[in-house]
């Protein structure tokens, strides 16, 4: 049993929102500590919960409890060693990730109000609950990066790994597809804009009459990150904020307030606090339209016209995506949807695919463009997209030509595993580690060769 066989997934990928929800549910369950690594500990429920999640997911090669515990022990050892080696994650980084997580939750639940109702806690309390586990995840990832940063692979190593696989054991890969899309975000209509403008201008008048900008931001701002700090965004370097926001902020004098500013994130009332060289300090009140009520008519018409242009060969889908798509993650690549697990342009066409995408492709032929389809972005915004079904590859046994990207990722992971394995066997002597008698048979602390 290789020490890090099940480790990389936990160290490299930050914990999910569902895992956070599971942690919340477990706080009221009677539990006990089964491992201590210096000042860090592992509960028995952590092992059991991860094991049950694997079982219910129905995926192949489910790790056993010992393998799961190994991963947790390595994570805790990384945290302990990070303290010793002064590997620190800045508070700014933690706060930024917290804000990103809360925005994802808002997209999932529809609004901050729905989140509060679902968890029975305020947004501020939820963030504080998540902060410590998030800090551990980010610190563990930074420590792993330190261990594996110099690990690289060559095409020769990928070929060698592939040739090690017995011919009768080559994985049979599902059908794969290549897809591109063009996304247009639904915009608020005139009445919705006017309502948001009126609210922000009212806040502006109230501040001018003596009310606190900070207090209004705490109550009304829909920026989950800065709202609890009275809208304070801290110092930002020029170029860090979206252009409309920055342009408006830099036209102000200290303590001046802007008119209402519209950006891709919503509508802002901005107050400049200070300019210091190439940095500026501002705060804002952000209001967003109700994304559930946005009219999809305009983006639908726009994409329908783009579809006609491509079908008439007046432009290519790739050029249209680069010019018109509002999805920043795919725009520069001509709308190509990439596989997040390996960075390749082929997506598994099976049950792991997003159901909405799967069923849309099911009614399409290769080489065709879909009609405009309603779509919800990762941050919860209402949108419309058209899909280009570029290619479909049939199920096949893995080979170097077609599956090099996947094989290279596996080869790199194996090499990183080996690096962490060597690090673990050396680092375990630098800290105190206690493992409960119930799990002694896992032999986690024994030399790797003894366990194989």
Automatic annotation (TrEMBL):
<dbReference type="InterPro" id="IPR050280">
    <property type="entry name" value="OMP_Chaperone_SurA"/>
</dbReference>
<keyword id="KW-0732">Signal</keyword>
<feature type="domain" description="PpiC">
    <location>
        <begin position="277"/>
        <end position="388"/>
    </location>
</feature>
<feature type="domain" description="PpiC">
    <location>
        <begin position="174"/>
        <end position="274"/>
    </location>
</feature>
<keyword id="KW-0697">Rotamase</keyword>
<keyword id="KW-0413">Isomerase</keyword>
<dbReference type="InterPro" id="IPR000297">
    <property type="entry name" value="PPIase_PpiC"/>
</dbReference>
<dbReference type="InterPro" id="IPR027304">
    <property type="entry name" value="Trigger_fact/SurA_dom_sf"/>
</dbReference>
<protein>
    <submittedName>
        <fullName>Peptidylprolyl isomerase</fullName>
        <ecNumber>5.2.1.8</ecNumber>
    </submittedName>
</protein>
<dbReference type="InterPro" id="IPR046357">
    <property type="entry name" value="PPIase_dom_sf"/>
</dbReference>
<dbReference type="Pfam" id="PF13616">
    <property type="entry name" value="Rotamase_3"/>
</dbReference>
<dbReference type="InterPro" id="IPR023058">
    <property type="entry name" value="PPIase_PpiC_CS"/>
</dbReference>
<dbReference type="GO" id="GO:0003755">
    <property type="term" value="F:peptidyl-prolyl cis-trans isomerase activity"/>
</dbReference>
<feature type="signal peptide">
    <location>
        <begin position="1"/>
        <end position="21"/>
    </location>
</feature>
<dbReference type="Pfam" id="PF00639">
    <property type="entry name" value="Rotamase"/>
</dbReference>
